[in-house]
Amino acid sequence: MPDSTDFELSRRRLLIATAASAAAAAATKVSAQMPSNAQAAATGALPMMQVSFTVNGTARELTLDTRTTLLDALREHLHLTGTKKGCDHGQCGACTVIVDGQRINSCLTLAVMHEGGSITSIEGLGEPQDMHTMQAAFVKHDGYQCGYCTPGQICSAVAVLDEIKAGIPSHVSADLTARPQATALELRERMSGNICRCGAYSNIVDAMTEVAGRTA
Ligand code: FES
Ligand code: FES
Questions:
Q1: What are the tens digits of pLDDT across the range 130-188?
Q2: For a substitution probing ligand 2, which of 84, 96, 135, 149 has the most ligand atoms within 8 Å of its CB?
Q3: What is the pLDDT of residues 185-203, one digit of tens each?
Q4: Does ligand 2 lie within 6 Å of residue 105's CB atom?
Q5: Do residues 110 and 69 lie in contact, with contact meaning Cβ atoms separated by under 8 Å?
Q6: What sign has the CA pseudo-torsion 109, 111, 112, 114?
Q7: Ligand 2 within 6 A of 146 CB?
Q8: Cα dist. 143→32, 103, 140, 188, 202 in Å?
Q9: CA–CA–CA angle 60, 65, 69 (5° rounding)
Q10: Distance 149 CA to ligand 2 centre (A)
Q11: Model confidence over 39-65: pLDDT tens digits?
Q12: Ligand 1 center to 147 CA (angstroms)
């Protein structure tokens, strides 16, 4: 004759089996209701959009999920892998590109927001045989070690000198009415959004200082 312990164990097994089959049935129902990506695209359920912009002087047209960042559009769709993905959260600057003359973190902006825009990535600044002045200065001053942050640093550095030339003050500009100068303090402040884990900061400032036409 079964005792009360046997009865309790069988009851528990029955409850577990019932719960498992109910969960499996629910999962099957949900997956039957969820369209596959292909089905969703076919029915227009995915938020796709066309975007046209100029990248490094060439007109490009892409049909993208509207949630695609500019960084992913460059790297995954246009295969311009010079622009790096570091944090993907706007905290390291590795993804910096120049859009309509201004440096931005391409991981923090959607590609479809730049319809008609002009985008310059590191590939558009120069090539190994024909380097941009800033690229050549980074090489000369050892402004990198592993090089992962370097495309973002160089794009930022080019735009920073343009900002200074345009008279845009920074948080360390003592006199907001005076024309800012490319001092080491200004350069360091303006480049503070570009992190270098190899710590090449001093050499980066030297490279920028040379391009700015000043002596370090
Ligand atoms: Fe964009 Fe780090 S990858 S800021
Ligand atoms: Fe290595 Fe900057 S050169 S992270």
A1: 999 999 999 999 999 999 999 999 999 999 999 999 999 999 998 888 999 999 999 99
A2: 149
A3: 999 999 999 999 999 999 9
A4: no
A5: yes
A6: positive
A7: yes
A8: 55, 19, 8, 14, 8
A9: 70
A10: 5
A11: 665 666 689 999 999 999 999 999 999
A12: 15
Ligand 2 within 6 A of 150 CB?
Answer: yes
* Helix (H/G/I), strand (E/B), else coil: 29: helix
Q: Model pTM?
A: 0.80
State which of 87, 150, 153, 195 you would mutate to test the pocket of ligand 1, scoring each by most atoms of that ligand within 8 A of its C-beta: 87
Closest CA to 159 of 136, 132, 184, 139: 132
| Residue identifier of the C-alpha nearest atom 2 of ligand 2 | 196
Give me the pLDDT at residue 28, please: 43
**Residue 163 to residue 86: CA distance in whole angstroms:** 24
From residue 3, give the alpha-carbon distance in Å to each of 6, 7, 8, 13, 15: 6, 7, 9, 16, 19
- Which ligand 2 atom lies nearest to the CA of residue 198? 1
Query: What is the tens place of the pLDDT at every residue in 81-136?
Result: 999 999 999 999 999 999 999 999 999 999 999 999 999 999 999 999 999 999 99
Nearest bound ligand to CA 195? Answer: 2
Query: Which pair of structure tokens corresponds to residue 43?
Result: 């029915």
